[in-house]
Amino acid sequence: MTKTILRLMSSPRVQSLGFCLGFLIISFATLLPADELPPVPGGDKLHHIVGFGGWALLSCFGPFRRFLAYAMFMILWGGIIELIQPYVNRYGEWLDFFADGVGVVLVLAITLLIKSLKKNTL
Q1: pLDDT in tens, 18-36
Q2: Cα dist from 88 to 29, 83, 85, 92, whole Å
Q3: What is the pLDDT of residue 118?
């Protein structure tokens, strides 16, 4: 049972599904017009790190090369979002783009660490 779940979780289909789900969530959360942005606990940048890190986490299970391509797209999409936001009554900030990248790179680094530890124990 556990092996079946692990095999399913590491399939390319589930990885692609996680990527698409994260893409939709991030895109709607960051590009829907807003009259006023509410104050957020923990700070805006932390939310960017958690949001993009969560998207990367949804996409990290499966082939690593595909995850690497997804991670590069996530960082690129973070920059595109910052360019689009002024046109949807939001604020485009390059520090938000940096925080997006930090979230993705953190998950990428953790994934590499786990792969390395797994390889050394086998």
Answers
A1: 999 999 999 999 999 877 7
A2: 12, 10, 5, 10
A3: 81
Return d(Cα 42, Cα 50) in angstroms, integer: 11
Residues 103 and 56: beta-carbon distance below 8 Å = yes
pLDDT over 90 (residue 4): no
Contacts of 90 (CB under 8 A, 6+ apart): 30, 31, 33, 34, 37
Residue type, 122: L
Neighbouring CB atoms inside 10 A of 115's CB total 11
> Residue with structure tokens 């399939």?
11
DSSP of 62-96: S-HHHHHHHHHHHHHHHHHHHHHGGGGTS---HHH
Tokens (6 digits) for 24: 């939709």
Q: Which two tokens stand for residue 100?
A: 């997006």
Structure tokens at 114: 């786990």
pLDDT digits (tens, 9 = 90+) for 93-110: 999 999 999 999 999 999
For residue 35, give the H/E element and its range.
Answer: none
